[in-house]
Amino acid sequence: MKSGFLAFCLSGATLLAACGQDPVAERQQVPKAEAPVAPTVDPTRAAAAKAVISAEPRVKDILYDPAATVAWQIGVLGDGSPEYGYADYICQILREKGVDDPDAIVRIVDLAVLARHEGDFRGASLGAIVCRDRSHFDDAPAARG
């Protein structure tokens, strides 16, 4: 008789409640993995900011990926000097163009180093700034060689 009762209790969520178990409470205890949500940036404003940044004489290329940790990769021909100030200037352009992403990070990348090191943006970094508070995102100087 016990085995029939067990089968009856396991036959459905509604029946589980009749057997003294709360299926809703059990489901609520299971954590769900949620995909990270990229900040919502108005594409028109992002495009306007990209156009202004592209017009800068020092800028040779831009990679904008709103889903990436470092959304704004700005390619320049660097001399090896840190470019945190220039990254901060790019953040200022983003603010002026209404790109309202509090977690925006701008990285200035030495394109010559990037080419030699097979697309390693972090290794080619001349400096990266978190726009919200102007803190340095990384201190990885561009690798030379």
Query: What is the rounded distance between the termini?
Result: 78 Å
Q: What structural class results from the helix and strand content?
A: alpha+beta
Mean pLDDT: 78
Uncertain regions spanning at least 5 consecutive residues: 1-19, 23-27, 139-145
Number of strand elements: 5
Largest sheet: 5 strands, mixed
Any overview of this molecule?
The protein has about 140 residues and is of the alpha+beta class. It contains 6 helices and 5 strands. Helix 4 crosses helix 5 (about 85-95). Residues about 1-20, about 25 and about 140-145 have low confidence and may be disordered. A 5-stranded mixed sheet has the order 1-2-3-4-5. Helix 5 (about 85-95) links the parallel strand 2 and strand 3.
Short note summarizing the structure:
The protein is of the alpha+beta class and 145 residues long. It is built from six helices and five strands; from the N terminus they run ααααββαβαββ.
SSE arrangement:
Blueprint: H1 2-10, H2 13-18, H3 23-29, H4 43-54, E1 59-64, E2 72-76, H5 84-96, E3 105-110, H6 111-116, E4 125-130, E5 135-138
Characteristic terms for this protein:
single chain, 145 residues, alpha+beta, 5-stranded mixed β-sheet, 6 helices, 5 strands, disordered N terminus, disordered C terminus
